[in-house]
Amino acid sequence: MAHGTPLWYLAALCFFICIGTNHSWQNDPDCGTAPITDPGSNIIGGSDADTGEWPWHAAFFVNDQEEVRCGATIITPEWALTAANCIGFVQYPEIYSVVGGLTDLRSGGGQQQLRQVAEIFIHPQYTWSDNEYDIAALKLASPFVITDYVRTICVPQQSLEDYIVPGTPCEVTGWGSTTETGYIYPVLQEMNVDIVSQEYCQSQYPDDEITDNMICAGVAGDGKDTCNWKPFCWT
Questions:
Q1: Residue 224 pLDDT > 60
Q2: d(Cα 77, Cα 216) in Å, to the nearest integer?
Q3: Which residues pair with 96 in a beta bridge?
Q4: What's the confidence (pLDDT) of residue 40?
Q5: What is the 3-state secondary structure (H, E, C) of the chain?
Q6: I need a labelling partner for 223 at 20 to 30 A (CA). Which of 12, 29, 142, 170 fits?
Q7: Nearest 5°: phi and psi at 232?
């Protein structure tokens, strides 16, 4: 996939970010809520996120590296999701950690919580040869403490077919470079996109197979792209 193309693949992990703020889907009444967010502060088009605006978005680290490896989504205090390609062949949980409550990788902000990974569960059908089933569950060694800055996203309890329709608005978040060849940008980024049909997505990527296990989203022609925003591209 070319980094500059106007559409990209988004799978289950990204979908929790896109529409998982509907807290009627889950018994946890606080899931999908960001109580400290200024309602007027949402910025469209790949801009800095406010501290606490996405409290279910976490950073996935390799313990001996300073740079964030990927993003993760907190689905319960004890579990997080990330992309399987972020783990690859190095499936030793003791070398990984998940940090919640983090927006700026430079300063931390004082609200972050670090949890070691205890177990890793990569989707059994994931392979490096294609982009299907690119998802992994991380069981944490100890649960996150739910605060205004660290919360769970809502996990849908029913079929998603009614939600995965063209035109459905999504919000994509992540750390990554803000240009194709740039360095990792330290402040969490946010961007608004819409789900597009599988047929249209396939027409934009004729050399790739778009399957029913993928979600495609984007805004054609406006320069928005997430291919460098970990881990929401090629999942």
A1: no
A2: 29
A3: 62
A4: 41
A5: CCCCCCEEEECHHHHHHHHCCCHHHCCCCCCCCCCCCCCCCCCCCCEECCCCCCCCEEEEEECCCCCCCEEEEEEECCEEEECHHHCCCCCCHHHEEEEECCCECCCCCCCCEEEEEEEEEECCCCCCCCCCCCCEEEEECCCCCCCCCCCCCCCCCCCCCCCCCCCCEEEEEEEEECCCCCCEEEEEEEEEEEECCHHHHHHHCCCCCCCCCCEEEECCCCCCCCCCEECCCCC
A6: 12
A7: -95, 10
